[in-house]
Amino acid sequence: MIDHIYKQVELTGSSKTSVEDAVQNAITKAGKTLHNIHWFQVVETRGYVAANNTIDYWQVTIKLGFRLDD
Questions:
Q1: Which residues contact 60 (CB under 8 A, 6 or more apart)?
Q2: Residue 13: closest CA among 47, 52, 54
Q3: pTM of the predicted structure, to 2 decimals
Q4: How confident is the model over 2-23, as pLDDT tens digits?
Q5: What are the tens digits of pLDDT across the range 11-63?
Q6: Which of 3, 8, 24, 62 is 20 to 30 A (C-alpha) from 33?
Q7: What single DSSP character describes residue 16?
Q8: Contact 55, 48 (CB under 8 A)
Q9: Which residues does residue 49 pair with via DSSP β-bridges, in sequence order?
Q10: How crowded is residue 25: how many other Cβ atoms within 10 Å of its Cβ?
Q11: Would you list the DSSP string of 44-66?
Q12: Rama region for 39: left / alpha / beta (φ>0; ψ in -120 to 50; rest)
């Protein structure tokens, strides 16, 4: 059996729509340069409030784990 080694990076995604879209945006962007992505963990969620007291956009910081090549 092969022992796999994993690495994690911290990313912050943003979205005007939702927390879930902010996470997906970060994972989608990372997937363009990283492979073997296996998991994510939400570290922080925050948002930006516009002048009219509405949510303008969401920001979600995640830790993204991926397996290093053998």
A1: 12, 13, 14, 19, 22, 23, 26, 42, 44, 45, 46
A2: 47
A3: 0.89
A4: 789 999 999 999 999 999 999 9
A5: 999 999 999 999 999 999 999 999 999 999 999 999 999 999 999 999 999 99
A6: 3
A7: S
A8: yes
A9: 55
A10: 18
A11: EEEEEE-TTSSEEEEEEEEEEEE
A12: beta
Tokens of 48: 């930006």
Cross-strand pairs, 55? 49
Beta strand 37-49 with 6-15: parallel, antiparallel or unpaired? unpaired
The residue type of 67 is R
User: Which amino acid, residue 68?
Assistant: L
* Tokens 């997906």, residue located: 24
How does DSSP classify residue 14?
A: E
Structure tokens at 29: 């962007």
Question: Which residues touch 44 (CB under 8 Å, ≥6 apart)?
Answer: 60, 61
Structure-token pair, residue 49:
């409030």
Q: What is the dihedral sign for C-alpha 23, 25, 61, 67?
A: positive
